[in-house]
């Protein structure tokens, strides 16, 4: 009897830990953007944050949702995608609001202009919504036509994780272009790193599709590169000021 109670206790503890890990997976990906959101609100400046991070994550998570339709893996990862999409829309809404408030020129850049020079640099938040809606409809039509193809479904998963693996790349390139990390929340990058280490471990332990842990490994490398930029550019700043 005592043995059965011990087994039940251990099973209950494992279930609780598993539930907590799943909750962390669902909402943990959104947490790094809280300090960046607060930084933009505080400074009323978006120059340090690359909105193309939002583009990469929106495409990655929309593709992942359709990958889930073709290959039902953990529900946790599907919910994580929904939370990330909502988070990216919140970031874009804030960036549009701040940029429109600070804009000196009355010139507006809209999706309907079809000017590739201003792709993902639109003035209205509604244009970002419209682009994502169009992309989602396109994915839905193609997925409906090719859902029975195992090759297509695996390719969809590979594309999703390839885009997600490139999450930090726009921020890395923007820092390089600016020769500065000013305006970028270092807390965001540290949370990216911690989250990527956690989720890569989660993928391996839960035997998720190989695409996921490969993606996580690439993200960790990019996170480390951005943290090295923080050290490099902060040293350059001290030298210039000194």
UniProtKB/TrEMBL annotation:
InterPro entries: PQ-loop_rpt, SLC66/Scramblase_ANY1. Its main location: membrane. It is a multi-pass membrane protein. Keywords: Membrane, Repeat, Transmembrane, Transmembrane helix. SMART domains: CTNS. Gene3D superfamilies: 1.20.1280.290. One of its GO terms (biological process) is phospholipid translocation. It holds the Pfam family PQ-loop. The chain crosses the membrane at residues 16-37, 49-69, 75-98, 128-147, 211-233. It is found in: Membrane. The keyword Membrane applies. One of its GO terms (cellular component) is trans-Golgi network. This is Solute carrier family 66 member 2. It comes from Seriola lalandi dorsalis. The lineage of its organism: Eukaryota, Metazoa, Chordata, Craniata, Vertebrata.
């Amino acid at each position: 009897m005592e043995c059965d109670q011990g087994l039940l206790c251990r099973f209950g503890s494992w279930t609780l830990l598993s539930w907590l890990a799943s909750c962390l997976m669902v909402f943990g990906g959104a947490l790094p953007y809280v300090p960046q959101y607060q930084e933009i609100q505080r400074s009323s400046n978006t120059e340090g944050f690359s909105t193309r991070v939002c583009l990469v994550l929106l495409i990655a998570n929309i593709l992942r949702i359709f990958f889930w339709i073709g290959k039902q893996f953990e529900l946790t990862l599907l919910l994580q995608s929904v939370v990330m999409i909502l988070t990216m829309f919140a970031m874009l809404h804030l960036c549009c609001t701040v940029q429109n408030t600070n804009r000196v020129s009355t010139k507006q850049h809209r999706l309907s202009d079809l000017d590739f020079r201003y792709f993902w640099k639109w003035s209205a938040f509604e244009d970002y919504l419209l682009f994502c809606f169009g992309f989602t409809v396109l994915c839905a039509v193609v997925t409906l036509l090719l859902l029975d193809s195992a090759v297509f479904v695996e390719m969809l998963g590979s594309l999703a994780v390839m885009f997600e693996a490139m999450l930090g790349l726009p921020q890395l390139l923007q820092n390089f272009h600016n020769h500065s990390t000013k305006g970028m929340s270092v807390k965001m990058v540290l949370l990216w790193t911690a989250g990527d280490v956690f989720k890569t471990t989660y993928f391996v332990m839960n035997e998720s599709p190989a695409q996921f842990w490969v993606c996580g490994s690439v993200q960790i490398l990019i996170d480390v590169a951005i943290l090295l930029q923080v050290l490099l550019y902060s040293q350059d700043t001290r030298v210039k000021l000194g």
